[in-house]
Each structure stands twice: as C-alpha cells, then as structure tokens.
Amino acid sequence: MKNLMFLAALLLLSTTMFAQKPGLSPEEKALLITNKMKEDQLISEEQFDRIYEINLKTAEEKKAKTEAFKAQRDAFRNELKSAEEKRWKAYEDVLTPEQMREVKIARAKRKVAMARKRKLMARRKAKFDQMNKANFPPQHPTQAAPPAK
C-alpha cells in the first residue's frame, strides 16, 4: 500500500513538473498561466482576477505537496540505504572473506553492465526522439493546420 501511494505521488508530481516551468514562485506560475489564458482569449478581463486566484491557490497547493513528497522521498531513500547496509553486514557474518570479495566483484560487474545498458537505451531514445521531431514537428493548438499537398 505504501509503495502504491509512493508511485501515485511520483506519477502526479512527474506530470506536474513537466507542465510547469521550474524555479518559479506560485505567484509567478499563477500569473504565467492566467496571462496565457488571456492571450489565448479563453478568459475575459472580468474573469482575470478570479482565475488568477484559482491558479494561485492551485500553485501553492502543488508547491506544498511537492515539498512534502521530497521529504518523504528522502526518508524512503534513507530506509532503503539502511536496509542495504544491514544486508551487507549479514553477508559478512555468513560468507568467508574470499566469498565476500567474489560477491562484490559480481555486483560491480552487474553495475557496469546496467550502466552500459542505460547508456545504450538513452542513445536509442535520443535517436528515436530526433526522428520523431523531424517527421512530426510539434504544433500549438492555436496554429493553423499545414496546407494540404
């Protein structure tokens, strides 16, 4: 249950972080969103202040939740690190020094292999993204569709 809540919070924050510019205060974010809505003629002058207040309240709530999540994430990482340290101490009680050395070597080899695999996957993703950008340029919803050939 705890892991499910953690994953749900992670998903929520990842989508939120991609949708907003980092480093802006809640007031700046609210103003940015509200001005964009006004530029796109989605709201009137009379609605501007009320929409700004709604956006400000939402931005403040998101900031508070993000900070709470970061604290939980750090605590979770510390718990995992502690569990890992306990495991290695338990290994030392059971294994001989030669076996410990072999286990550490095998672990290091797996780490290197995973790093290579991550690097390869990142290259493939970059190449795929580059191909998609060339073939499917992003379009803003307010832009007119390209002329038919």
Question: Short summary of the structure?
Answer:
With 149 residues, the chain is mostly helical.
Overview of the molecule:
The chain is mostly helical. It is built from 4 helices and no strands. The model is unreliable at 10-19 (pLDDT under 50). It starts with a helix and ends in a 14-residue tail after the last helix. The protein is elongated. The chain has 2 domains: 2-94; 97-133. 81% of the residues lie in helices and 0% in strands.
Strand content: under 5%
Largest sheet: none
Unreliable parts: 10-19
| Total number of domains | 2
| Number of alpha- plus pi-helical segments | 4
Structural class: mainly alpha
Share in helix? over 70%
- Mean pLDDT across every amino acid position: 83
Instruction: Work out the number of β strands.
Output: 0
Q: Termini distance?
A: 54 Å
Radius of gyration: 24 Å
Q: Which sequence of SSEs, written as H and E, runs from N to C?
A: HHHH
